[in-house]
Amino acid sequence: MAENYFGEGVAERYDESSPEMFDPAVVDSAVDFLAGLAGDGAALELGIGTGRIAIPLSRRGVRVHGIDLSPQMVAQLRAKPGAEGVGVTVGDFATATVEGRFSLAYLVFNTINNLTTQDGQVACFQNVAAHLEPGGCFVIEVGIPQLQRLPPGETVRPFTVTPTHLGFDEYDVANQGLISHHYSVVDGRFELMSVPFRYVWPAELDLMARLAGMTLEGRWSGWRREPYTSDSTRHVSVWRKPAAPPQGSL
Ligand SMILES: C[S@@+](CC[C@H](N)C(=O)[O-])C[C@H]1O[C@@H](n2cnc3c(N)ncnc32)[C@H](O)[C@@H]1O
């Protein structure tokens, strides 16, 4: 199974460490987008974490089930009001199976990059396709690889510099990998956490979707369907599984 980088300490501080992602305006726009796609069906969140999106989506009336590798993140979710309505399977979302079929599967906040091999990312799309009902869709929110900002010959780029959090991405361009190094103040001292990722371009994700029998329906630069352009730093993409052929057709 993949390694768990979201253990006890990380899980306890997760919500407060990314306050901008918990901003109600950010969460509401994601939930609006996802609820619209789920319709009357159920939703599957890959990497559900502490329930940042799953709990408000469930409160909107969508049945939500999640998969996560980290029992510690799931324990944080379970402690929250509103978690009663959310089911969780502990496992690797590239391979774990869940009962039932879903009208929507989603993978947000760059979490596709936590799968550090192409095989793992391809398997994830195939696993999603197997869980979707015909006509169901898969949504990914992920950053565009920031290679245009990496000067030739350099391998390290700062992504945050505040008095309490220093973050550097270390690129391995030949292997499409990066390691995010976080130096965060914990109890008055800097602690280091380094997490490996595989960055991935939109075109490669489209090909993975096609391998899994899904086609791109739309790509935007945010949850409010802002246009996706050459200047976009992230994308929200939707791929759809074909609808079932009408009964009686060959
Ligand atoms: C950045 S957090 C996102 C959590 C939540 N989706 C959110 O938006 O706040 C990534 C989550 O994905 C989980 N995760 C990472 N790789 C995974 C894998 N291969 N299988 C299942 N869960 C995984 C981590 O344990 C963590 O809870």
Element pattern in H and E: HHEHEHEEHEEEEEHEE
Oligomer class: single chain
**Tell me about the biggest sheet?**
7 strands, mixed
Number of helices, where a helix is a run of at least 4 consecutive DSSP H or I residues:
6
Percent of residues in beta strands? 25-35%
Structural class category:
alpha/beta
Strand order of the largest sheet: 3-2-1-4-5-11-10
User: Any low-confidence stretches, pLDDT <50, length ≥5?
Assistant: none
- Average per-residue pLDDT, rounded, comes to 96
First CA to last CA: what distance?
A: 41 Å
Q: Ions, cofactors, ligands: which are bound?
A: S-adenosylmethionine
Which overall shape is indicated by the principal axes computed on the Cα atoms? globular
According to DSSP, the number of beta strands is 11
Q: Bin the helical content.
A: 25-40%
Radius of gyration: 18 Å
Helices and strands in order:
Elements: H1 8-17, H2 24-38, E1 43-46, H3 54-59, E2 64-68, H4 71-78, E3 86-90, E4 102-107, H5 118-131, E5 132-143, E6 156-162, E7 165-172, E8 177-186, E9 189-198, H6 202-211, E10 215-220, E11 234-240
Parallel strand pairs: 1-2, 1-4, 2-3, 4-5
Antiparallel strand pairs: 5-11, 6-7, 7-8, 8-9, 10-11
Helix pairs in contact: 5-6
The chain binds S-adenosylmethionine (SAM).
S-adenosylmethionine is lined by residues 2, 6, 47-49, 52-53, 67-70, 73, 92-94, 108-109, 111, 114-115.
How does this model look, in words?
This protein is an alpha/beta fold and 250 residues long. It is built from 6 helices and 11 strands. The chain has a 7-stranded mixed β-sheet. A 4-stranded antiparallel β-sheet has the order 6-7-8-9, with no helix packed on it. It binds S-adenosylmethionine (SAM).
